[in-house]
Amino acid sequence: MKDIQNITILGGKGGNGSVSLLRQRYVPKGGPDGGDGGVGATVYLMADGNLAEIEGPYSTAVTGLAGENGIGGKRTGKAGKDTYIKVPVGTMVWRLGGQEEFFGELITEGEILLMARGGSGGRGNTHFSSSINKTPLLAETGEMGEKGEFLLELQVVTDAAIIGLPNTGKSTLLREITNARPKIADYLFTTNEPVIGMLEHNWASHKVVELPGLINGSSTGQGLGNGFLRHLWRTALNIYVISGGSPTPSDDLEDLRREVAAYSEKLLEKQYVVVVMGKELNGDQIQFANLEKRLKGEGVAIVTLNKITKEGIDSLKETIHSMIEGAPRIERRKPTEMRQSVRLLKPERPLVVKDGEVFVVSSRQAERIVDLPDLRKFRVKLQLREELARLGVLRALEKAGVKRGDTVRIGERELQWE
User: Fold this and answer.
1) How far is residue 224's CA from residue 192's CA, in Å, rounded to a whole number?
2) Domain count within the chain
3) Are residues 148 and 236 in the same domain?
4) Which helix (DSSP H) or strand (DSSP E) does residue 47 occupy?
């Protein structure tokens, strides 16, 4: 089961605005009619109950569709169609960067989570018309979409989990109490990934997951490791399985709980039941009696199952059902911080710094306005200068000491100052 994935997500780029002048019979000097660019696609995650694991490679990238460019006739470009990435129910999302931050989770079928907004479309030349400029020749480029690097972690949504050492009867137990048919064999680590089944009891259904076997040292990477213990976070009940033939059942239980605690001590706070699978004649009956006495004194249920006669199955189902029904609901986690849009809500003050002999202007509005114009035309140069003055760029450059002939970089474009 693939339950981890690194993914880079980029919202779709907005379409460019259009520079167009109305050309129509009987309408001389019709004025600007360039349309705006379409909005870029927003990228979402969507929970799909049909998926058992996270699909795709362990490291991948997804980019939303770009919006189309605006066209004449004041027609706005078509928006990019939003992208939905399907993930299993129970997927946790962490934002990567300076430090890992919880971003969100999807724990119900069909739930969606916004990952990266698409960029807004650039304005067409109709927006640059004024009383002194009837034929504007400027338009904006579309804005880039939001970008983020994320870690997807699947924590399966189940009601109970079966935990035990290898070859203690975990798969047999899952087969007896649910509709699952896991592989059963007489060798270690027969179960090498989580297996899920449905327990039906008293007209109620409960999802039960069997985890691979834990051994001493799983927390340090021995055996199959302990990464699969992430699937315990959402359970209401943990079922610890002890072999009836074990000479040290108390030690086995403590070993299991020690390995769980090594992953996270919070998991020990969950309610649990102990199941002894097939008490054998060679088992130390005194040891089992002492374990049963201790657990009952602590208020922990312990159930013994006979593999041959199936005695104890109904009692165990009732115990599991009642404990799950009485467990408190697991609360949703809250994101580390509120989402903020990258879209510009108000004009920003331009910043000018010097990089060697080049004056570098930092202004998102200015960067979007300088890319499209054909600066070989004098009228275009004049209009661009007026727009940069309106945005405060000229004043910032003058304060920084720019002179005629200096190189000015705005975004990806370099200009000779005149």
Assistant:
1) 7
2) 3
3) no
4) strand 43-48
Same domain, 125 and 50: yes
Look up tokens 């922990």; give the residue. Answer: 300
In the 8-state DSSP scheme, what is residue 27?
B
More confident residue, 40 or 98: 40
- Listed in order, strand segments (DSSP E) in 230-308 are 237-243, 272-277, 301-305
> What size, in residues, is the chain?
418
Q: In sequence order, which residues have a C-beta less than 8 Å from that of residue 9 and are 6 or more positions away? A: 43, 61, 62, 63, 85, 115, 116, 147, 148, 149, 150
* AA identity, residue 130: S
The token pair that represents 132 in the structure block:
């002194």
Domain containing 314 — which CATH number? Answer: 3.40.50.300
CA 169, 175, 176, 178 torsion: positive or negative?
A: positive
CA–CA separation, 135 vs 125, rounded Å? 8
Which range (37-46, 192-201, 222-231) has the least confidence?
A: 222-231
CATH of the domain at 383: 3.30.300.350
Sign of the CA dihedral with 222 first, then 228, 233, and 239 last: negative
Question: Within this chain, do residues 108 and 249 fall inside the same structural domain, yes or no?
Answer: no
- Residues 345 and 216: their CA atoms lie apart, in Å, by 56
**pTM metric for this prediction:** 0.81
Residue labelled with tokens 């990435």 = 85
In the DSSP assignment, the letter for residue 32 is B
Mean per-residue pLDDT for 411-417? 88
Residue with tokens 């919070």: 266
63/183 same-domain check: no
Pairing relationship of beta strands 351-355 and 237-243 according to DSSP bridges = unpaired
Whose tokens are 């072999």? That residue is 243
Torsion of CA 373, 32, 349, 115, to 10 degrees: -90
Distance from C-alpha of 148 to C-alpha of 104, rounded to nearest angstrom: 14
Q: 40 in a domain, yes or no?
A: yes
Does the structure show a pLDDT above 50 at 204? yes
